Amino acid sequence: MTALREKMLADLQLRNYSQQTIDAYLRQVAAFARHFGKSPDRLGPSQVRDYQLFLLRQKRASWPALVQTVAALRFFYRVTLGRKWMVDYIPHPRYVKPLPTMLSQAEVQALLRVKQNLKHRALLTTIYAARHGSQRSATRACARRSICRHSPPYASIHGSSGWESGCASAGRMRW
Questions:
Q1: Could you tell me where the DSSP H helices lie in the chain?
Q2: Does some domain include residue 94?
Q3: By residue range, what is the domain housing residue 140?
Q4: pLDDT for 29-68, tens place per residue?
């Protein structure tokens, strides 16, 4: 074990990191050094950026793997080497939350037709209607301009469909 690796191990243990985190951080820093064939203390911001791009583009690493690598490298440079300025050059990857899959009308109709049990079909229809029904879109349509500041917490507002829908008043909303 190299002196640098021993120092990082000691730093992690002093800060009471779990054994799994210690193993993961040491593995990530070792992989970083192995990628360039040099000691990680001799690598700078451009190599860190190149390595992150390598993980993202060529290795197609998952978001958790990228986050783990960033955390390990930040710890290594900030704590083990004492280079606090290097942390600014190791950007944290942004998590992109995938959008939910929406079913087409034909798919919903096919789903509802499959259920032979009337109770199950009614349940699926109710769930779908509650999730994607007109009340939800009417509530979303409540805009600031349609809310009276002097109204009770839930004001009755007539939308374009003529139905009443509850919408929180401006006095209780946080904009």
A1: 3-14, 19-36, 45-53, 63-75, 105-114, 118-132, 134-140
A2: no
A3: 105-168
A4: 999 999 999 999 999 899 999 999 999 999 998 889 999 9
pTM of the model: 0.57
Domain boundary among 29, 57, 89: 89
Asked if residue 142 and residue 83 are part of one domain, the reply reads no
Please write the tens of the pLDDT for every residue from 111-146: 777 767 888 878 877 877 776 655 455 445 544 444
Dmax (CA) for the chain in angstroms is 75
Which amino acid, one-letter code, is at 40?
Answer: P
CA–CA gap between residue 130 and residue 133 (Å, rounded): 5
Same domain, 112 and 63: no
175: three-class secondary structure by DSSP: coil
